[in-house]
Amino acid sequence: MSERKNWHEYFMDIAKLASTRSTCDRKYVGAVIVRDRVILTTGYNGSMAGAPHCDDAGHLMIYGHCTRTIHAEMNAIAQAAKNGIMIEGADLYVTARPCWNCFRVIANTGIRNVYYSEEYRPDKNINKNIKYVKTKLIKLE
């Protein structure tokens, strides 16, 4: 019998699966919000609901970033808000390290830990300001 995956591997695998729904080919990212080993929401990089996707309409680039796409973390948080799901004290699994904009929202929601698998554009603002918030960034190997 094969060895059973630990919880971090399990939830990160689900975040990776969510990333396959991404609609911006610049970066496929998936996210899962979990509390007490129960999945609360998922998210992936994609356009606003009902708006054209990068895959269909091309990228909307501003200062080197595709602004047509909402990041996976924000989509997972938006799904929680839309469905009345409290995420304070939850953990977030995301396939790439959050950007500064996402991290600020994550911290304000009260998410406790952010587990990520890939370094992606590490932001000095996060490194300078993480000491002021309760949210922890943890890289999984």
Describe this structure in words.
- With 141 residues, the protein is an alpha/beta fold.
- The longest helix has 13 residues.
- It starts with 6 loop residues before the first helix and ends with a strand.
Sequence-ordered SSE layout with sheet pairings:
Layout: H1 7-19, E1 30-35, E2 38-44, H2 54-57, E3 61-62, E4 65-66, H3 72-82, E5 91-94, H4 100-109, E6 113-116, H5 124-129, E7 136-139
Helix content: 25-40%
Strand percent estimate: 15-25%
Biggest sheet overview: 5 strands, mixed
| Individual helix count | 5
Overall mean pLDDT score? Answer: 93
Radius of gyration: 15 Å
Q: Cα distance, first to last residue?
A: 24 Å
**Beta strand count:** 7
Biggest sheet: strands side by side, in what order? 2-1-5-6-7
Oligomerization: single chain
Question: What letter string, H or E per element, gives the SSE order?
Answer: HEEHEEHEHEHE
Low-pLDDT regions = none
Structural class: alpha/beta
Shape, principal axes of CA atoms: globular
Summary, kept brief:
By secondary structure, this protein is α/β, with parallel strands linked by helices. The protein has five helices and seven strands.
Search tags:
141 residues, 5 helices, alpha/beta, two-stranded antiparallel ribbon, five-stranded mixed sheet
